[in-house]
Amino acid sequence: MTKFEDVVSRVKDVAENVGKKTGELVELGKMKVKIADLRREIAGAHEGLGRLIYDSRKSGESIDDMVDACIEHIDALNAEIEDLEERIMDSKNLVRCDGCGAFNEHTATFCNQCGAKL
Ligand SMILES: [Zn+2]
Fold this sequence. Notes:
This protein has 3 helices and 2 strands; from the N terminus they run αααββ.
């Protein structure tokens, strides 16, 4: 296995493990922890992506497929975060501001962050 493949397979392993655990999550706190974990995984995937590109430039090896695979995994992790945030909002009866993305009480008329009308 080349080190490029190694990076991609590690990113895949992480994505699969994260996927398995999601179905078991019921509590709000756990969802928040999960989101923090996912954000860390995304940061790690970005780092791996940077390493792929750096190594590729040095070696001249083509890595388009691996870069695509990394990007797909990052997108999947981001989609999972959005899904969890939606579930948290639902359970807390919050609404998201269209302007800045901040969470607000569903009874609020204006955003508590940017002041936009909700
Ligand atoms: Zn706002």
